[in-house]
Design a protein that fits this description.
Helices cover 46% and strands 10% of the residues. The chain has six helices and five strands, in the order βαβααβββααα.
């Protein structure tokens, strides 16, 4: 039996294939297949329309691992969330129709959002440390709230 398959060429023709050169040390293992998946699904300019559930199903990992991978890719400045089911790859690794389009997008980037600097690893680690600190503070706030004693409340009625 023969199945006809329609070949679909990507819209972009130019990309700097250096995404894995810039990945920081300490990234969760799931970040690499998630990044490669997004690189393969992107529209010209790096926009990716895909949910975390779809990524998980398509690459065969749990949704929680996809969530953590995307979080670390965001800490590294490689991917950011634009909305529900919409992500954007950094112009430094995104595909474009022409090299000129990519260069314009890179030139428009804020210096803080670039990951081709010598302090890239330190900035990534600082993002993680800040996230962990905020997580600890939220946990402490939750513990500080007195639990409601429903039994005592019922007795007082």
């Amino acid at each position: 039996m023969t199945i006809a398959v329609e070949h679909v060429a990507p819209e972009y023709v130019w990309t700097a294939n250096n995404a894995l050169v810039f990945t920081p040390r300490g990234m969760p293992p799931a970040a690499y297949p998630v990044l490669l998946h997004l690189l393969g699904r992107q529209e010209p300019g790096g926009r990716c329309l895909v949910t975390q559930g779809a990524i998980a199903a398509e690459i065969g990992i749990t949704r929680s691992k996809v969530t953590r991978a995307l979080q670390h890719l965001a800490f590294a400045g490689m991917v950011w969330k634009e909305g529900n089911g919409a992500y954007r790859l950094s112009p430094l690794i995104a595909g474009f129709r022409t090299p000129v389009e990519q260069l314009r997008a890179i030139e428009a980037m804020d210096d803080e959002s670039r990951f081709d600097h010598a302090d890239f690893q330190e900035r990534y680690e600082a993002q993680i440390a800040q996230y962990e600190l905020e997580k600890q503070q939220k946990a402490a706030q939750r513990k500080a709230v007195e639990p409601i004693d429903l039994a005592a409340r019922r007795r007082s009625r």
